[in-house]
Each structure stands twice: as structure tokens, then as C-alpha cells.
Write a structure and sequence with these properties.
Layout: H1 3-8, E1 19-21, H2 25-36, E2 42-44, H3 66-70, H4 74-87, E3 92-94, E4 97-103, E5 106-111, E6 116-121, E7 125-127, E8 131-133, E9 146-148, H5 149-159, E10 167-172, H6 174-185, E11 190-195, H7 200-209, H8 213-228, E12 233-234, E13 238-244, E14 248-254, E15 260-264, E16 267-272, E17 274-276, H9 279-283, E18 288-291, E19 296-299, E20 312-314, H10 324-341, H11 348-371, H12 378-381, E21 387-389, E22 394-395, H13 396-404, H14 411-418, H15 431-442, H16 446-449, E23 466-467
Parallel strand pairs: 1-2, 1-7, 2-3, 6-23, 7-20, 9-16, 10-11, 10-16, 11-12
Antiparallel strand pairs: 4-5, 5-6, 8-17, 13-14, 14-15, 18-19, 21-22
Length: about 475
């Protein structure tokens, strides 16, 4: 059954408040725009406090100052937090709430604090689900003490602690330097930053990156600060393996000259930039297309953030990684498109300016891809014994053997045969690596492998949750 047939059996409600999923930069600006035009949206967020991952808010009683947590962005973070606090009494705000499924024009919700589940009908929906880590595993990555860059950032911002007392950050992308800087600035012991991108790539992208001089200057500052504070930064490295018995004890790598190095450590932060979080858009029936810039499939949107499903709008990194500043712009633009589709007058000149700003950001994003290229030789180097899917314990060798029997190379067919991506994470952690290995094995473009289709529940549900009747709702703070 295709999405359009499904919606014929479940037409859009004739009326109702707009719904926003996600209270990060995109969701907050969307809510602000809707309120300014007289609509009171429902704002659903998995986190206990608004801010998203980039501006994640601390628990009550947390003693760290915003400047220590957000660095250059502390002013923008504070502004966004204060904006939401001011708007909150006017919103139907539902924190600690997971959207775990979408069927037709109904969202299935889990209120995690109360362990209660119910459903919410929607007429218009802004999906602002953000991004997640892009991970390429290495031997030993399942050892305790190996974290994604995003996980390391959550520990620092939300829990006020470091992932270890001697940390190596490895991978590539702007987030690598940001997290290393945040840890070192907060007093953590950062042993090294290991970037798989060659230093020469920065020079190739330099001219294009000057289109966003303020952002470029921040990146240069992070790098300079780390080096000035005696944090070794190595470019063009090859990550070999994490070593340890009961937990990680060292990272083994090759430097740009090919010499093998071993850095003893108590923790590793690992990541290769970010990828869009698209599972909800998938369940909603949005059409996807392969985006070479992101090296993955993303939902299709028009210039104003409308998806291919009537009434569904996509804002922020969930439709393509562009960063927090662009997420705010796209959140406002998506809200203006929603208002326009409801017949409410909007400032068309403002919409045009937002589109222009997002176009400039897209050009800068392309420059970043040149400066921090994806290591497209990773799959060829991955040993057969490497665990790719840690939920189901599927190795690179098993993937290659399965692929050899499936020359058409569809990832969902291969998933059915060997269970890759069928565990708790639904492929969020292993999907990128599995796709790369299959493409390399079959000698076809990554786009030909397809994408792991979203399945409900998006995230695991507790067995003891209480399911409320449809005419009831859990109370919301």
C-alpha cells in the first residue's frame, strides 16, 4: 500500500492546532512564528527541557555556566532558551514525550516520565527531529569507554562529567574539533585529536569557506586553541583499532606518513560528522531521494520546507545537515509555509530572505564536505571480523557473504537475510557502515544500496507502559 492510498482511508482532520515534533533550534523558531500569527501549536519533545542537542539544557541545580558549556554560542543558546521560556505558557508543550510511531494522521506517543502511551491526531505537522552521529566502527569499538562524539557531548553538557580522565577524539568533521575544545576548555584531559581528513583538504576548501567568515573563524579558533594548549592534532590519520580488556585502554592508528602509533587512553570519542534523523519522516510516508552531499537518502522538500506529504513540513537537520543557525531559519520558513497553506497572510519578503540565507548556508556546507571528506576507502579496509551491527552481532564478513548472494544489493533484502539493522537501534548506529560495506563488496554506488526503511517503534518501549484510551490524554506540564 502506498502512502497516498493510506491517507484516503484516514483523511486529514478538518481543524486542529499545528503540531511540532522537536524543541531544538528549528522547533523553537517554528513555534515562535506560529504564535506570532495567532496559532497555538502542540510542541512534542523527547528531552525534559527544550534546546535540542546543540543547546541541550542542564538539569535543575546544575552549576556550570552557559559560557563554559556553549563557548561562542552561549549568547545564542541563552537567547533560544529565554525565548522558549517566554513562549511556554502559550504553548501546548509536552516534554519527555517520544513519538514512536506515525499512522496516517495520528502520532503514537510515549510519555516517558509517566510510562503512559496515547495518540495525537494532526492536521499540520512540522518535523524537526534533528541529527544523529554518523559512525564508522573500528575493531574494539564495542569496548566500554568508546563513545560517539554526540554521546560525549551529552555527558559534558547534561551530566556535567567527562567520558574519561584521558580522552582521544577521532574521526572527522567540525564536531570533532568542537567537542575536543569543549572538553579541554572544561578542564578535561584531551590526549589527541585524530582527524582522518588530510590537512591539504582545508586549503582546497578555504576560499569557499570564506563565504561564512564568522563560522570559519570559530573553527580556526578551536584548532588554534587546542594546539596552543598542547593538545596534539594529527591530520590524514588512519584509525586501526581500540585496545583493552574490560574497557578501552588505547587507540592504535597510523599517522599521515604511514607509521603506526599507539595512544594510551581511558576513553574515545568517535564520529564522522552527522547524519539526518529521518525515521519519523519515513513512517509519515515522505518520499526520499539520494543526496550526494550527505551520502545518504533524505526526505524530499521544496524551497519552503514542504515535504511530499500534504501537511508535513521538515525543518532543521532532519532534512539535511546544515547546522544550528540554519535550523532556526528553516524552522521559521516551515512555519510560514504552514501558515500560507492555511490561508493566513505572511511576509513573503521575509520568506525570500530566509531562502537566500539557507542557499548561502548550503554552499558553505558543500565547502565543509571538501574540508572534511568522508573516508570512502573505509569499507575496503574493514576486516571481516569487525562487528558492524552490535545489536545483532553481525560482522563485516557476514555482510560481505550475504551480499555475494544478492547482486541487486538492496539493504532491506540483506537486512531480512542476516538481521543487520534489526536490533534496538533500528540501524541508526550501523546503517551507514553496512551500506558502505555492501556498496564496496558489490562495486556499485552507495545510492544503489538503498536505505533501511523505518519501522515502529522508532525506539524501544517499556513493557509496563499504560496505554490510554483514545479519548484520554496523559496530563502535560
Amino acid at each position: 500500500m502506498i502512502a497516498s492510498d493510506f491517507y484516503l482511508d484516514d483523511p486529514r482532520p478538518a481543524d486542529g492546532p499545528p503540531v511540532i515534533v522537536g524543541a531544538g533550534p528549528a522547533g523553537i523558531r517554528a513555534a515562535q512564528t506560529l504564535l506570532a500569527h495567532g496559532l497555538r501549536p502542540v510542541v512534542i519533545d523527547e528531552a525534559p527541557k527544550a534546546g535540542g542537542q546543540i543547546y541541550r539544557r542542564q538539569p535543575d541545580g546544575f552549576s556550570r555556566k552557559p559560557k563554559d558549556l556553549y563557548g561562542f554560542e552561549h549568547g545564542r543558546a541563552s537567547d533560544l532558551h529565554q525565548t522558549f521560556d517566554r513562549l511556554r505558557p502559550q504553548l501546548d508543550y509536552r516534554p519527555d514525550t517520544l513519538v514512536w510511531n506515525a499512522q496516517g494522521h495520528s502520532l503514537d506517543l510515549l510519555h516517558t516520565a509517566q510510562r503512559m502511551a496515547d495518540s495525537l491526531r494532526w492536521r499540520d505537522l512540522i518535523v524537526a527531529t534533528g541529527a544523529t552521529d554518523r559512525v564508522l566502527p573500528l575493531p574494539g569499538w564495542t569496548l566500554p569507554g568508546v563513545y560517539t562524539l554526540g554521546g560525549a557531548q551529552v555527558a559534558l553538557k547534561y551530566q556535567g562529567c567527562a567520558i574519561g580522565d584521558a580522552v582521544v577524539f577521532a574521526g572527522t568533521g567540525p564536531l570533532l574539533y568542537l567537542v575536543a575544545y569543549q572538553y579541554a576548555k572544561a578542564g578535561g584531559r584531551v590526549l589527541a585529536v585524530l582527524d582522518t581528513a588530510p590537512a591539504a583538504q582545508r586549503y582546497k576548501a578555504a576560499l569557499a569557506m570564506l563565504a561564512q567568515p564568522a563560522v570559519t573563524a570559530k573553527g580556526l579558533y578551536f584548532l588554534s586553541w587546542l594546539m596552543f594548549h598542547d593538545v596534539p592534532v594529527h591530520h590524514g590519520v588512519q584509525l586501526l583499532r581500540a585496545e583493552g580488556a574490560d574497557r578501552v585502554q588505547a587507540l592504535v592508528w597510523k599517522d599521515a606518513q604511514g607509521a603506526e602509533q599507539r595512544t594510551a587512553c581511558s576513553a574515545i570519542g568517535l564520529g564522522y560528522a552527522l547524519r539526518p534523523e529521518t525515521q519519523l519522516a519515513d513512517l509519515l510516508g515522505c518520499e526520499f531521494a539520494f543526496a550526494p552531499l550527505h551520502r545518504c537518502y533524505v526526505p524530499q522538500i521544496d524551497a519552503d520546507r514542504r515535504s511530499t506529504v500534504p501537511g508535513v513540513y521538515l525543518a532543521g537537520d532532519g532534512a539535511g545537515i546544515m547546522g544550528a543557525d540554519a535550523a532556526e531559519l528553516s524552522g521559521e520558513l516551515a512555519a510560514l509555509a504552514l501558515l500560507q497553506d492555511r490561508g493566513i497572510a505572511t511576509d513573503t519578503a521575509r520568506q525570500a530572505r530566509l531562502r537566500q540565507q539557507l542557499d548561502k548556508t548550503q554552499q558553505f556546507r558543500q565547502a565543509l564536505e571538501v574540508a572534511f571528506p568522508f573516508p570512502d576507502d573505509w569499507a575496503a579496509r574493514a576486516p571481516d571480523e569487525l562487528v558492524v551491527c552490535r545489536c545483532e552481532n553481525i560482522t563485516a564478513g557476514e555482510l560481505r557473504a550475504t551480499a555475494a548472494t544478492q547482486p541487486q544489493g538492496d539493504i532491506n533484502r540483506i537486512k531480512a537475510l542476516c538481521r543487520v539493522g534489526m536490533g534496538r537501534c533500528q540501524g541508526r548506529m550501523c546503517g551507514v557502515a553496512a551500506t558502505e560495506i555492501l556498496a564496496d563488496t558489490l562495486k556499485v554506488p552507495v545510492a544503489q544500496i538503498g536505505r533501511i526503511r523505518g519501522q515502529a517503534p522508532i525506539k524501544p518501549l517499556p513493557l509496563d507502559m499504560t496505554v490510554l484510551p483514545q479519548d484520554q490524554e496523559a496530563s502535560h506540564g
